[in-house]
Structures are given as structure tokens and as C-alpha cells.
């Protein structure tokens, strides 16, 4: 069925998507929280920056990231001075790039979930002696759980499906940066249509299954009174 | 000899420390709140006014849910807010009941009740068990909030606020979101709170009915400002109360059940200055009650009235006369012993009767509302 290199690409893709989702859970949650709670002027600009990857061609994003992370870019000089080398054409380079690319898929569902909770449960928690941090973990997290599931699933699936940014940042190194979408591209380039079909079918089935699970199991929004 | 002045000073300090001083200035584009109040730290104080009068904003400032740019708030000598100090809501020893019960939907009733209890250092002051018992919710503990009726939810909301062992209970129109039947279901519980809790309660309401029934003190608000405040009896008997009460103008009297007439199912309530007969509601004699007499139910006669269906006729003296909202009407204060009643008359009948201050009158009371 699938060749070893196909399996390798699928495994790499899964790892990349999982790591990216975890990182974005940590990074995207506070951003989404600030966006949902703030009434400040910078809310608009920050929201726009977060949404940029939705409309920007992946090659543009990849190009800027490549420059930044390259040996002459600020990020590249920082990582080099830390003894980490430069990130382009490595797995961690892909992780960084994916994190930017998939950011809106994490932030926007979370922001919606936080906004739909409203002020009231937070005020109730405050009058019941819960500090803001305590409130976040004991009230906001449980109430926003459906939002977290949606955000996590979308981020994972979107990272699995990325192509342009990977090509710009990661290139095509087997086992390091050759993810499933790139592998399919390779198959097609090499006129291996049967291989391309098999892998493409796997991707299609995966994407459909994920979305189906989300739409079928979407819980009813938590109802207060 | 030397102990006397110092004890006196202590009592003075105690009485200062036992008060709630609230001074707030809040400027929003469409609303300004400006209050400077001394609230008693015992009994039920009603913040009373129409919607938009600022009563809820004031309560939220006291709770720390709203931060007035300029404010000073001290509770029993502890400063919660001034130019330098800001104690966040979660560090204030308050209990807060919201208009909608706002129970946490992800927790069971017991989980809701325990939420604050777990986080409060003073929770033993009023045990969870006592709160559950006071509000009669023992049979609901395992349920989820969305399976409860509105009235049950609000009772849980109140119990949840009490379970943290607050030093003051703040209630923001806890009955406003409920229908009449649910209100009647909860009011007895609120009366129990008033009678059994040692802590002060600040109760926001726009319902004269609830205020008359529950409050010991009243702070009347309009347009973000305090327009009158004082003990409920005195304040409601003011003719110049700058709040439109319409049909609800009337007084509240403290009374005791003096006698019960079993044959006619009537009870006599005695107040300072006289007695009134009302429907017997099964209260034992000697029970302290509150009686509400609306101005529209009081009429005046200069001569002895003839035979009438009205059972309650008292002797009084006109104390003062004031304008009513409608130009055709007057409000008249009548002194009856140590108590005051307010009567609503048309200007024409007042002129025909020759109503002036000092005139002795016979006061007919058509209807009396007995509140436990």
C-alpha cells in the first residue's frame, strides 16, 4: 500500500501538527483572552495581525519567515548566538512557521468561546473569592471547552494541510521536512500518480473525518440563565 | 471616673467603625453617578429607584465589580477603596446575589455552593449547611442548574453567596427576573435572612412592595444621585420624597399582633398610636409585624362618619399637606399618636373639608397589608 517514505511523511506530518497545536494552545490562549476581554485601541490591530495568515499567500509568509530566521535575519542571529544554528530547513523551523501560519485557527475559535462566556461568570467567581487566574482555570476553561476542542482540531488539521510555507521554510528533506503534502507533490512531479492517489486519499479521508467529527459532535453551547 | 470619657470615645469610634461609608463619582458618557453616603451596617438597606437611577452601579461599586475613578469606600473601618487603595472584589468579604442567579452551568448545585466556600477563609461564619437550610435547597444538591426552576436557581444563588461567610450581603434585584409566583416563593426566604442573619444586607430594588416588606433603611436614588435616605418609616412618610411612587405612596408601620378574632377571621395589629384590623393570617398574638398602609386607602372625615363598610377608623391630627404628582391631588400627613399615616385626597375634597395643619380628623383606613 503506502511506501515507507509515505509512512515517514505521514508520521512527520502528525508530529509537526501535534507539536504546533500544543505550542499554539499555550501561545494562542492568552492572545485570544486579551482579544476577547480588551476594550483597548490595539484590539483591532492585533486582531488583524492574527488574522493575516488567513489571507496572505503562504509563500509571502514563508518568504518573510525565511529572511527572519536565516543567517542574516534577527531571529537567525539570535538562534545562532544561542548555539541553536539556524532554523530554516529543520523540523523546528517548520514548527515555528506552522505556528504563525495556523495562529488564526487557534485564536479565533478561542476568542469566540471566551466572548460568548461574557462578563457575568467572571464577576460571579470574583464575588466568590476566586482570583482572576483561579477564575480562568476553574470557570473559563470548563466553559470554553468546546471552543478549545474546535480550536485544537482546526489547528491540527490546518497544519497537516499546509504546503506553501513548508516548501519555503523546510524544503524537501526526507524525514526532516518532507511532510505528506510535499510528498504528494513529489509523487506528482515524478508522474507516480498511483502513489499520489493513495496518499491523497489518506489526506482526504483524514480531513473529512476530522470535520465530520466536529460537525456531528459539536456540543450545544453551554447555557447559563 | 477616667474610664467614662474613654469608653465614650470607644463607643464613638465603634459607631464610626460600624458604618459603611461610600463616596463615588463615576462619569460615563451617558450616565453620571455621584454619591456620598453613610450606610448603617445592620439590617436591610434598600437602594431604591427607577431603572437608570444608578442603584445597581452603586452596588457594583461597593462590591468592587465597578471601579469609580474617584471613590472612597470603607466598611467597618476597613478601607476598600480610596486614592491609593483598591481591594479587588475577590478580596472583599462580600456575598453578592445577581439579578439572574448566574449559576455555573458546568457545576452541580453542590459544586456551585462549594465554589466560594473552598476559597473563603471566613466560610465557617455561616456554614454551608445553614445556608442550605435557610434557603430550603437540600433536595437539589445533586442536580444541574439547567434542571432547576427560576425560583430554585435564585435560592441557590443566594445560598451560594451566603456560603462564603460574608460580612455583608449585596443583592441586586434578586427577584426582578422572576414572575409573581416565584417572587412569592422567595420573599419568605428573604425575610428569614433579614431576621436570622447578623450581617447587613444592601438590597437593590425598584419595587416599592419589596422595599416596604424587607427594608429597614431606604436610600432613594434618581439620576445617579441620592435624593433621600433614612429609616424606612420616616422616609416613606415624607411628602416631598422626590421619587414618583404613583399608586405605591404609603407608609410602613411597625406593629405587633394584639388580638385575633377567630369568629370573623380578623387580627388586630397594634402600632404606636392605634390599632388596625386586618385579615387573620394565622400569626400568634405578640408577633412583631410590619404593616403597610397605602395613601390611596386612607380617607379623612371631619365629622363622625356614618355607618360604613370601613372597619378601621382612627383619630388623628393633620400634620402637613403636600403636593402629589397629579395637580388634582394632595398628600396629607396625619399624626396618629406617635405614628404618621399619609392620605391621598383630591384638592377639591380637601378644600371642602377645610383641611389645614392642626385640624383634628377621623381617619378611615380601607385596607391594610400585613407583612410578617
Write up this protein.
The complex is a heterodimer of chains A (225) and B (372). Chain A has 225 residues and is mainly α. Chain A has a single domain, classed as MetI-like fold (Orthogonal Bundle), CATH 1.10.3720.10. Helix content of chain A is 76%, strand content 0%. In chain A, 37% of the residues are buried. With 372 residues, chain B is of the alpha+beta class. Chain B folds into two domains: 228 residues, Rossmann fold (3-Layer(aba) Sandwich), CATH 3.40.50; 122 residues, OB fold (Dihydrolipoamide Acetyltransferase, E2P). Chain B has nine helices and 20 strands. In chain B, the strands form four sheets. Chain B has a six-stranded mixed β-sheet with strand order 6-7-8-3-9-10, sandwiched between helices. A five-stranded antiparallel β-sheet of chain B has the order 13-12-11-14-20. Chain B has a five-stranded antiparallel β-sheet with strand order 15-19-16-17-18. The longest helix of chain B is centred in the middle third of the chain and has 17 residues. The two termini of chain B are 46 Å apart. The N terminus of chain B is likely disordered. The chains are: A mainly alpha (225), B alpha+beta (372).
